[in-house]
Amino acid sequence: MTEAENTPATAIPPEQERSLGMLVHLIALVGMVFPFGNIIGPLIVWLVAKDGKPFVDEQGKEALNFNITVAIGFLICLVLVLVAIGAFLVFLLWVAWLVFVIIASIKAYEGTHYKYPFAFRFVD
Fold first, then answer.
1. CB atoms within 10 A of CB 38
2. With CB atoms 3.0 to 4.6 Å apart as the test, which of 28, 32, 42, 55 could cross-link to 17 if both were Cys?
3. Domain range for residue 47?
4. Domain-located, residue 93
């Protein structure tokens, strides 16, 4: 049995896991530069770092689920641009996404098992 399997879920993860947990959230900010980078960035970090690191695995799934939900919301807002409310909703969605990503990054670095409040569970 590895040390990670012996560690209770309430224990604070080691520094390396906390840093990777923070990175999996922060890397979503790549989405501001590259289309769908908010999904591809966390996916790559999660796939590379999840093995043997339960905290990174959990936070990676959270980041992916939230960013997929935001991408779907963005696509819906683009359709709603046709009825003039979409531009305002895109701005609100962007602000909420940015705030939640920053909060999740801080909480992950603190070792808190953070769950985004508005995310569908695609990856489990």
1. 26
2. 55
3. 14-110
4. yes
